[in-house]
Design goal:
This protein has 168 residues and is of the alpha+beta class. It is built from 6 helices and 5 strands. The chain has a 5-stranded mixed sheet. Helix 2 packs across helix 6. The longest helix is centred in the C-terminal third of the chain and has 25 residues. It starts with 11 loop residues before the first helix and ends with a helix.
Amino acid sequence: MTGSEGRDFPTVAELEAQERRLVLPRFTYDDAWELGSLLVQLSRERGAPVAIDIRRGAQQLFHCALPGSSADNDAWIDRKRRVVERYGASSFLVGTRCRAKGTTFEDSARLDPDRYAAHGGSFPIAVEGAGVVGSVTVSGLPQEEDHALVVQALERLLSRTQEDAAQR
C-alpha cells in the first residue's frame, strides 16, 4: 500500500503479523526503562528529533524528548496513544485498515481528530497471557519511520527478555 506521500506502507497483514510476533513474556518497570533507553539509543544513532513515551495502563513509565522535538510531538503522542488504548492495535494498523477500505480514520471512526490520530508511531505493549497492558509511542519522523523505530526497539527487547528467560 502506498501512502499519500508516495511511500510504500506495510500491508494490514504485515502489521497484524508484527503485533502477533511482538508479545512480551513480561513488562516490568525495568523493561520500560530498557525499551525507552533502546529507543533513545536508536534515535540518537539516526539523529532523529523525536519524543518517546511508554505507558503501562494510565501510568507513564518513560518519557524523553530529544533535540529537535517539540511540544507538538507530545500532542501527537497523546493522539496516537489514544488510538492504541481504544482499539488495542497499533495506530499505524488502525489507519492502514481504514486506507485499505478506501476511507480515512477520521471519516470512519468519527472521533475528535484533536484527540485521536491513526498515524504510525504508537504500538500496543502486549504480554503473554494478559493481552495489551500499555503502549509505546514515538513522534517526530514520518509515520512509517516512527512505527518502524518502535518495532525495531520492541524486537530487541523481546529478544533480550527471551534470552533472560532461557538462562533461568
